[in-house]
Structure prediction request, 81 residues.
Amino acid sequence: MSKVVVVFKVYPKDDAFDKAVEEIKGMGPNDIKSEDIGFGIKVIKVSFIYEDSAGGSSDIEDRLKKLESISEVEVAEETLL
Prediction:
């Protein structure tokens, strides 16, 4: 089976950046970084690696959206390893 890496841009709710990072770390990402996008706004870039047959990135995206400190999630990139 092929492995897939997906990178999400995660937008935390106001004043919940640190809480969002901690909640995401609990999901076991492969990498997590913060990125300034301007005007004091930070986005969390988080990557996951999964088996191609494991249901796709939509399962991970749904889990991220259910976290209470997250306001928005978008797929930044997805590719085979």
